[in-house]
Amino acid sequence: MSIVARHDLHFLVHRLSRGFPLSDMEASAISHLPIMLKHVEAGADILREGDPASEACIVLEGLVCRYEIVAEGGRQIQAYHIPGDIPDLAGLHLQTLEHNICALRPSIVAMVSHRALHILIAEHPQIGARLWRETAIDAAVAHAWVSNIGRRTARARMAHFLCEMLARYQALDLASDTIPCIITQLELGDSQGMSVVHVNRVLKSLKRAGLIEMRGKNIRIRDQVALQFAGDFDPSYLHLSEAVH
Amino acid sequence: MSIVARHDLHFLVHRLSRGFPLSDMEASAISHLPIMLKHVEAGADILREGDPASEACIVLEGLVCRYEIVAEGGRQIQAYHIPGDIPDLAGLHLQTLEHNICALRPSIVAMVSHRALHILIAEHPQIGARLWRETAIDAAVAHAWVSNIGRRTARARMAHFLCEMLARYQALDLASDTIPCIITQLELGDSQGMSVVHVNRVLKSLKRAGLIEMRGKNIRIRDQVALQFAGDFDPSYLHLSEAVH
DNA sequence: AGATGACCTTAACGCAGGTTAGCCTCATTG
DNA sequence: CAATGAGGCTAACCTGCGTTAAGGTCATCT
C-alpha cells in the first residue's frame, strides 16, 4: 500500500471518455487524483455492508464483485467489476452502502477519498457529469440483470451473462473471444441465481452446441453471434460507446 | 396537457429534501421548473425503448413502471414508480434508454425538458447532487431486486416486495398499513419473476398466515414486522431518511 | 510423494413453481 | 339487464432446477 499520484488510471479515463473525449486538462486532473494503491488478495473484502463511506475504490487490475448475503446463508453477487469500474461510486452520495465489495481474484484497486472527488467535480463539472453517467449505467446494468434473472431460462441467462462480460472486456481491448478473468462455477451460480450443479449442466449444453469452450480455466466464446442470439442479448444497455450530450 | 409553472411538485421536493432540507431558493427553483402536465391512461406507454431522450417525466399521481419485453413475449417489470419519482432520470446522461415506461393506473406526470434540468443543476449544484443521489438509489433498489429475485423463494420474495412498496408510500405519508395503489396479480408476477398462478398461491399463503389481507383490490399489511421477517427485509437500501454529506 | 483443498463433473431424486384450463366475480357499457 | 372483458381463484399435471452425494482433476504444501 503506497501513496502514488501517477499510477495507471487509464482504464477509468477511457471509460469516462466514451462517446466524447475528455479535454487534456480533465484527463490529467483525473490522472493526478491522490490515490492510495491497495493490493487485495482473492476472497478479501474491500468494503463491508454498512461501513460509513468516505472513500471510493477504482478497480485497476483483477476482478471485483458486489454481493449481499441473504437469509439462510445464500450469497447473491449483484455485479462484477473490471478495470476502470468504480464499484462503490454510489457511496459518494449515500451515507452507507447495503452491499459488500470483495475481490474474487487477486486485484489492485486505487482508493480515492470522497473529498478529493468532490473537489475534482467542483473544478471540472464535465467530469461530474461523466461520473453521474457511470451511476446511471450501473443502474441500467442492474435492471438488465433483473430481466435476465427474472424472465430467462438458465441457459439463456448464462448466455446473456457471458455476452455481457465479453462485451465489457472487448470495450477495454482486453479480450477478443475469451473472457480474460477466471469466474468459478460457484460464482456464476451465485450471480445468476442458480445452483453450481445447474451451472455445470448449462455450460455443458452451451459447449455441446459449439457456442463456447473452455481454455484452461477461461471461457472462450466460439460463436459470439449465436451466443447473443441464445441469450437474447443486445449490448446497448451497457452504453459502451455512445456520445454524450 | 397544459403548460403550468406552479403545479404540485411537492413530492419531488420532499424526496430531494430527505436527510437534509433544501434551501428555500432551491425548493422554489424546483417548483418553478417549466413543466408540461400529462394525463396518462392506464396501460399507455410514456416512453418507448430507444426513444431519443430529451425530456424527463416526474410522477405526480398514479402508478408508473419501467419494463422490458424479453424474448418469447415475456414482460419484466423492473421498477415501480410512485409520486415524486423520476423514472427516466438516467436519460439525462444517456443517449437512449433500453426500457419502456408506462402507466399501470391512470396517472399524471410532469414532463421537463433536459435543457431546463441542466440549467437548474448548473445554477444549483446542490440540486444536482440530490438528483445524482436519486440515480444512486435507483441503482441500489435494482440491486436489491436482483438479490430478491435471484435468491429468495417466491413467498419471501413477495413479502419483501410488499414491504418495499409499503415503506416507500409510508415515507410520503401516503400509507399507514395499506398499499394505496392497485397492483394486479399479473403485474406482481411480471415484476417478481413468477407466474400469475403462483402469485395467487403465495398471496394466499401470506393471507392464511395473517400477514396481509385484501381490502377491496388493495393489499393491507396486517403485521408489518412479521412480513419484514418473512421477506428478510431491511429498508436501508431505500435510503428513505438519511442525511446528506 | 503423499496429503490437502479448491474446483469440476455427473447421477439420482424430489420439489417449487410453471403451464393449461376452467370457472367465478365484478365493473363497465349499450 | 344482458353482454363483455378484466382480473381473481383453483385444480391437475408436469418440468426445470435444487439438493445431496460421490468421485475426479489439478495445484500447492510439507
Report on this structure.
Two copies of one chain form a homodimer. In chain A, the strands form three sheets. Chain A has a four-stranded antiparallel beta sheet with strand order 1-2-8-4. A four-stranded antiparallel beta sheet of chain A has the order 3-7-5-6. In chain A, 40% of the residues lie in helices and 22% in strands. The longest helix of chain A has 27 residues. Chain A is an alpha+beta fold and 245 residues long. The first copy, chain A, starts with a strand and ends in a 15-residue tail after the last helix. In chain A, helix 5 crosses helix 7 and helix 6 packs across helix 7. Chains A and B meet through strand 5, strand 6 and helix 4 of A and strand 5, strand 6 and helix 4 of B. Chain A binds a DNA duplex (30 and 30 nucleotides) through helix 7.
Q: Describe the largest sheet of chain A.
A: 4 strands, antiparallel
What is the CATH homology-level superfamily of the largest domain in chain A? Jelly Rolls
Given the structure, what is the number of helices of chain A?
A: 8
* Number of β-strand runs of chain A: 11
Class of secondary structure makeup of chain A? alpha+beta
Strand order of the largest sheet of chain A: 1-2-8-4
Summarize the helix and strand pattern of chain A as letters: EHHEEEEEEEHHHEHHEEH
Number of domains of chain A: 2
Quote the CATH topology of the largest domain in chain A: Jelly Rolls
Name the poorly predicted regions of chain A.
Answer: 1-6
